[in-house]
TrEMBL record:
The chain crosses the membrane at residues 6-22. It comes from Flavobacterium soyae. This is Twin-arginine translocase TatA/TatE family subunit. Pfam families: TatA_B_E (PF02416). InterPro entries: TatA/B/E.
């Protein structure tokens, strides 16, 4: 639940109990429960309105899924084209870096830190 462990939950409840007292805690919990229920109902209403609007405009879930599938396929195609070119670039760059590193090592030899 929101990444809160048992010990943390007990600590939070203890702090709430200390701040508000034992007589106010049930009232606060009831109020929070009602607020959560109202929030859930509001989000469900918004979802249903969006669904009704989409259906009124001729969009159903199948057409939306195919549309997003086509968009995702194009994105993956573009990624593979871009990444395919950069891997060759990175491979060539790594080879050149290794060559320069070997040249520097052969010229300078092992360098040790002096204390």
């Amino acid at each position: 639940m929101f990444g809160i462990g048992g010990g943390e939950l007990v600590f939070i409840l203890f702090i709430v109990l200390m701040l508000f007292g034992s007589d106010k805690v049930p009232e606060i919990a009831r109020t929070m429960g009602k607020a959560m229920a109202q929030l859930k109902n509001a989000t469900n209403d918004i979802k249903s309105e969006i669904q009704k609007g989409a259906e009124a405009n001729g969009l159903d879930t199948k057409s939306l899924n195919s549309l997003t599938g086509n968009i995702n396929a194009e994105i993956e195609s573009a990624k593979s084209n871009l990444l395919g070119d950069t891997t060759n670039l990175l491979g060539d760059t790594a080879t050149e870096i290794d060559k320069v590193k070997e040249d520097i090592d052969s010229l300078s030899g092992p360098i040790k830190r002096q204390r």
